[in-house]
Write a structure and sequence with these properties.
heterodimer, A: Immunoglobulin-like, Immunoglobulin-like, five-stranded mixed beta sheet, five-stranded antiparallel beta sheet, B: mainly beta, four-stranded antiparallel beta sheet, 1 helix, globular
Chain lengths: 253, 323
């Protein structure tokens, strides 16, 4: 019984001592480092600290929720770096700041992070701000990779990887540079994509991927015998409901 | 020429599209492979894919199309083709290699056997590659680093006393590396090598011919620590690798330091991944995997943007996450 009383008493004495010297007995938990406008496909780090020196260890839990702008559920999009929507942190006198990376994801919407914290004496600490909110705005698509499939005598494919935060896509513009001495020297091909992307984003299996995609477009062509690569480079521009992406490329086959 | 372009235009417009989730690459995990899905800053480690057998180890080629695996029961080396999910024995190689090394683009590979200090250079990734047997028994120890050229004709091994290159002749050439190389690599599609020692990064061009060294970085002559016992730990390179376009040369240190030389711009950048890199496993482009699935998360490094990303396990068991 004595041992049971000693530990809480020690904690109380520590707090009382802190009070006597003018320190905040129960410091405020401060979460900083997170932007109010979240950029898709980034991983900012929340820095969790206390409003002042504190002699007790503090443990806390952060919980993340995500509300997609387009409605529905995107439970897999925004998350903590541990892959989940809850994570824990510990602040000690020796390590007064905890780092909590957040994966923003690729879907437009609002990320809300709430934090609770308790010191080693069992006191609940308040935090500032009460919740952290990050808004991921709908933006034009971003193309991150362009690769080529097999070239045959009359067909080839191009795969475009990227993201589109509104989870829609209307078209892709392929700007081909043609071989030397060919007239014209360039060729633009626009491929309508509304239906293909509506099918992808409407499929429940796509929710795991947020708004990321790989679109493979098959082309056919006719050229001189033995001609298997009918262009020397290609640039790709994707367009969604917000607008057109930056051109990606040129990429050589 | 006008006719050719006109025909091309008319038919190219009649394209079809298929949309699916992106695949970043594949992750060896306990003798199996997991899919790494999404894009680097917003990806996840997904389900285990059937690899056609129980393997004691498996290594993925940098182009993420094939893997070399060691069968757990027999030690046999098999070539696993990821797209088809099929594996075939690699003919003519010894069993149970201690190290599997891919060329930068994954077109060739090498196997290291510690007990015999023997290297088998595979000129291509196929069931029946030409195999170049190289005896390193004179070295009396395992190499600190190994590399294979994309044409499968050359290999480089670094030991504390020398860095050797062995080509078609079978003779070992001592490369002009000043000091013990901690890591070596080939450039993509070239017989050029990079090496890092404790004090230098050196590029050695044309190891099949002129063998020309060019030091691109030298460590300043810092004064020795007053008390070596309390000096901070020294960063040691665990891997050196180039991006697929040969523009970026990156170094990973055992304490998490990542340094990248932009060879086109003549500049360098660095950061710390706050991790312990196992290597720089090429994943295409300028993307490298740094770690295995530790604590449910993998770290990848994009040398073109000098950024490190978390790639966690999927959130649900159905997608490969925790059960």
């Amino acid at each position: 019984m004595i041992a049971r009383r000693v530990l809480p008493l020690a904690a109380l004495l520590t707090v009382a001592w802190a009070n006597a010297w003018g320190q905040a007995t129960l410091p405020t938990v401060i979460v900083s480092g997170l932007p109010t406008i979240g950029v898709a496909a980034t991983q900012p780090t929340a820095l969790v600290s206390l409003s002042g020196p504190y002699q007790l260890n503090v443990t806390g839990t952060m919980t993340l929720t995500f509300t997609p702008a387009g409605g529905g559920a995107q439970a897999f999009d925004a998350k903590f770096a541990n892959g989940g929507t809850t994570t824990t942190f510990t602040i000690t006198p020796a390590a007064p700041t905890a780092s909590v990376p957040v994966i923003i994801g690729t879907v437009a919407g609002i990320i809300t992070i709430s934090t609770t914290a308790t010191d080693s004496a069992g006191n609940s600490l308040t935090r500032v701000p009460v919740t952290n909110t990050m808004t991921v705005n709908p933006t034009v698509p971003v193309v991150t990779k362009v690769t080529f499939g097999a070239f045959t005598n009359n067909t080839f494919s191009i795969s475009v990887t990227g993201r589109s935060t509104p989870r829609d896509m209307t078209s892709a513009l392929f700007h081909f540079a043609l071989p030397t001495n060919t007239q014209p020297s360039t060729l633009d091909v626009t491929v309508p994509l509304t239906t293909a992307f509506a099918a992808w984003y409407g499929n429940s299996s796509s929710t795991t991927f947020g708004s990321t995609f790989t679109a493979t477009i098959q082309f056919s062509f006719t050229g001189p015998p033995g001609s298997t690569v009918p262009f020397t480079a290609v640039s790709v521009t994707m367009t969604n409901s917000v607008g057109a992406s930056n051109a990606f490329g040129p990429v050589n086959p | 020429m006008m006719r050719r372009s006109a025909i091309f235009f008319a038919l190219a417009g009649a394209a079809w599209a298929q949309v699916q989730g992106p695949v970043m690459g594949y992750l060896p995990d306990g003798g199996a492979l997991r899919t790494m899905s999404g894009i680097p800053a917003a990806g996840f480690v997904g389900v285990t894919i059937p690899a056609g057998g129980a393997f004691s180890r498996i290594e993925v080629s940098p182009d993420q199309t094939q893997a070399l695996a060691v069968v757990a029961e027999t030690g046999a080396v098999v070539l696993y083709t990821i797209a088809s999910g099929t594996s075939v024995p690699v003919q003519g190689v010894a069993s149970a290699p201690d190290r599997i090394v891919f060329s930068p683009s994954g077109t060739a590979a090498g196997l290291w056997f510690s007990s015999t200090r023997h290297f088998q250079l595979l000129n291509r990734l196929a069931a029946t590659p030409a195999i170049h047997e190289i005896d390193f028994s004179f070295t009396l120890s395992d190499p600190t680093s190994l590399a294979v050229s994309d044409d499968g004709q050359w290999m480089v091994g670094a030991w504390p006393f020398s860095t050797y290159a062995v080509g078609p002749s079978g003779y070992a050439i001592v490369l002009p590396v000043s000091g013990a190389a901690e890591a070596v690599c080939f450039f993509h599609g070239r017989n050029d090598v990079a090496a890092i020692t404790a004090s230098q990064v050196v590029l050695i061009t044309d190891i099949a011919g002129a063998v020309t060294p060019n030091v691109i970085w030298s460590k300043p002559n810092d004064p020795p620590p007053a008390d070596p016992a309390t000096a901070p730990p020294v960063q040691v390179a665990v891997a050196l690798a180039t991006s697929f376009d040969n523009r970026y040369l990156s170094v990973a240190g055992n304490l998490g330091a990542l340094s990248t030389f932009d060879l086109a711009a003549g500049a360098s950048v660095g950061l710390n991944c706050t991790c312990a890199p196992a290597s720089l496993y090429g994943m295409g482009g300028a993307l490298f995997r740094l770690t295995s699935l530790t604590d449910g998360v993998v770290k990848v490094f994009d040398a073109s943007t000098n950024e490190v990303w978390f790639v966690p396990l999927a959130m649900t068991a159905a997608n490969g996450g925790p059960q």
